[in-house]
Amino acid sequence: MKSEFSITIQKFISAFTKVSNDLKAQGKKVLITTHRFLDGDAFGSAVAFGLLLQKLGIESTLLCVPFVPLKLTFLGSMGTLHIVSPFYAGDGNTRNAFTNTLFEHFSEIKEDFGALVVLDCAGIDQIPEEAWSIGKDLPYKINIDHHAGYELQSPCGRILNLVLDCSSTSEIIFGLLKEMGIKEYPEIAVPLFVGMVADLRKNDVTRDSPYFPVDEIRELEIQARKIDFDVRKLVKTVFSLDPWEKYLLKVTLAGRRSVGNVVYVRFDHEMILQAKEVTDSKDNPRMPFHEFHTRLRHRLKRFSMDFAVVVIFDQLLGKVSLFALQEKGGYDLAAISKYIGNGGGHPNRAGFTFSAAKEKLIACSIVEENPTDEMIMKKIVESINHQISEGSHIEE
Length: 396
Known about the structure:
By secondary structure, the chain is an alpha/beta fold. Helix content is 45%, strand content 15%.
């Protein structure tokens, strides 16, 4: 008897085959995008899906906003994929300039595309507006996601949703490959392996968890070895910290503060420059990203007896990340993130942008015009503490 997982994918494949045949017949390309500030699973699944389309004879373009993390860029060379990465992380004017450049670029070639593929976004609000503006009117939209309960809705075009409760979106792409009967996929195996491991680490899914994809991980290792990729050695490289990141981790932890049931930390551009200067790493172009957040959260777990939630303010990217310190807290951090900053995520891990929360605080007259970042951070943490202390947004 086929599992529900297999039945759902088979239904998707039936519809997807018709779409891919139509795209090939018309000679149309596919635009692929992921959530803003993409991580290992988002980029890994995007590269893997682009390579899958290549196998089907369909060209694609990956639109990665605002950039591809440096340690993940090698994944883009697994095939002949076209990747557009505007690489901005500056102020609003810089962002607008890049957005305009993107629109100008795609306005000239938009007719070449027939479908928009959205991966790992968890909600329409998490789709980069640059990608949505370009792809919202395309005839087909395909949404693949492991954030159960979310399906893409749009009044324009035909929509295919493949949403399953898995450890990662990369795991769903793996299942898609298997159900399509594709037996040889070594180039695709590498980004899928990185994608799976990235979300397993980020969500603290251990080997004894029913969500840990043991057989899938083993199969991907076998496939990757066919092109001489030692994925275990690869993981050590991708998920390691540079000396300056280790120093930044120490300084960030030393500056931790708390409000009620919430412990929070912050890091900004000045702290990063200091860390690079102290460790003689000023020529290093990297910036701390998801693995730094993961290590930071792991270090903060030592306070799980005293606090319920960790909040990380990444003031370089303007992101606010929430993580549960206790396995069953009885609250939904995704709902809290939506309430505070129109964000989202999982019940135990979620986030939103600093600017969205700031706008909401000003609009609700909780803070006055032109508040300091310190004031905004304090109000955000106070709001999170109130939500979890008062039992608001209880997880069902």
